[in-house]
Structures are given as C-alpha cells and as structure tokens.
Amino acid sequence: MGTETLIWSRPERGARGPRPTHTRTTIAAAAVHIADTEGVEAVSMRRVAAHIGAGAASLYRYVSTKDDLYDLMLDAVAAEDAPLARTGDLRTDLAALAHRQRTGVLRHPWVATLSGLRPSFGPNTLRSMESAAALIDGHDLTANETLLTIETLTAFVTGYVHAELAEHEANRRSGMTVDQWTEARAEYGRTIIGNPDFPTLTRIMTEATAPLAEDSFEQGLARVLDGLVAARTTRCSR
Prior knowledge:
mainly alpha, 11 helices
C-alpha cells in the first residue's frame, strides 16, 4: 500500500466542495470520548457521527475507513504528554519513558488494544517518537539498537499493563478483589501444596509473597533496565 492511503497524506479539506463543518480534531475527540467511556468496541462511524451531530454518511468526507479513525484517536492521545526532559543518564531516562507509557495506557485503556497496530505516523505520534528517540540518543547506540531498546521497553510496559487491565476487568466482572478471589480458592490451593506432581509450584506457593502492583512494576522494570543498560555497556567496552 502506498503512502497515499495514509490519512496524513491527504488534505483535511478538499480543494472543491462545501467548507467542512467538522475537523479531524473534533472527530478524534469524539472517538476518544466514546472509547474512554464505553470501550473501543463501541467506536463506530455511526456513533462518532451522532456524537458530533453529523450524518453517518457525511463522516466519510473526513475519514475513509475505521483505520483512519483509529489513527486519529492514537494521534490525539499522543499529544497529551509534553516531551520528557533528558537527564543524560540512560537508565533514568528509560525509566521515565516507561512510567509515561504506563500512565498513558492506564488513562486510555483502549490504547493497549490498538497499540499493536502499525504506527499511525500522525504529527503528534511523530513528535512522541522523536522525543523517545532523542531521550536515549548520544549513548553510542546504532539506529537498530535505539529501536530495539525502545521496542523492548515498550513490550515490557505493554505486557504489564495488559495484565493490570485484565485484573481490573476480572474485578469488575466478578465483583471480587484479587484478595477475595484468592481467599475463595484457598482450600483448593492447599490441595496443590504438597502434591508430589508439583514440587516447584509447592515451593513457590509456600515461599512467595505477592508484591503490590506498583512494587511489581518497579521490580520488573528494574530488571529490564538492568539488561538494556548492560547491553549498551558491554557493547561500548568492546
């Protein structure tokens, strides 16, 4: 597919025809509002059109496909955060980037669903990508290593937040907190402990303490940062 299929390569206003009543900004804001309040599954051309007071057919004057709509949504939320201030310390700056990524997805949970799509390359998305790349530039990383560093960090944050959101949904659906759920299954859990078929699980279930969500994120992030910084240090020492 050529670049002509991207919404960003098409003018927002055609050279001919009536003056547009709406803008991509208002359309994106409406779609984001629907996704935030009802879930991304509720986003449709018809729903967005109704939200901005337009006919469903007329919305196609502004966006050609639902993918266009998703691109507008992702680009809109990419504008919410200012560029991070670079400290020059790779570990510190990567940690700041990870925390901002996590906060953004928790603010808009549907982003976790759409973030697996190819980048939208909208203006706000490009500025966000530039900010992330500039944050770790100057550490003797090649272009490929820079991309791999950001992708590895993002993969950890995305995976962790997916689990957080799944837990929130499980709480909502069952009406039980994770502690209540664990307590309700305690009796069955005791049948696992001591079973000779599960010696490793027995040890873990007996010895492990479940960290709080924030501690768990910090501990996992620390290990990812250890690896990323060590990889850079090893390369530079060769």
